[in-house]
Design goal:
- The protein is α+β, with helices and mostly antiparallel strands and about 120 residues long.
- It contains two helices and six strands, in the order αββββββα.
- Strands 1-2-3-4-5-6 form a six-stranded antiparallel β-sheet, with helices on one face.
- The protein is globular.
Length: about 120
């Protein structure tokens, strides 16, 4: 499969560290929204799979794919595959950035604007 960008080669341990940080970042954002009474999204994480449950019953699923070194997002609007490139996760079909897509899908499913952002590197 051809991607619209050049993926950054990752070792397995590097891939696991990056994806673990990403999933933790998403969980922390959702926890902060609950504390700030923005939106009540339930999170359930099992290993490399994070499920976000919205008040209307819809779900978003973010799933790591270690053999492929990919990150997958399943939403009402479809399924998306991402590869790591130069510090960002980009859609293998159109190059769209993961957090932009996650924010758009979450906003649609929550019925209000929500914005996820990557954790800042130290």
């Amino acid at each position: 499969m051809t991607t619209p960008f050049e993926p950054t080669p990752l070792g397995d341990s590097e891939y696991h560290a990056i994806t673990s940080t990403l999933l933790s970042c998403i969980e922390a954002t959702v926890d902060q929204w609950l504390q700030d009474d923005v939106v009540d999204i339930d999170t359930h994480r099992t290993g490399g799979l994070l499920e976000l449950g919205f008040p209307n019953g819809s779900k978003l699923v973010i799933n790591t794919q270690p053999p492929l070194h990919e990150l997958w997002l399943a939403a009402r609007s479809g399924g998306y595959h991402y590869k790591y490139s130069k510090g960002r996760w980009l859609d293998t079909r159109d190059g769209r950035e993961f957090f932009a897509a996650l924010s758009a899908c979450a906003s649609e499913q929550a019925g209000k604007p929500l914005k996820f952002e990557p954790a800042l590197s130290a």
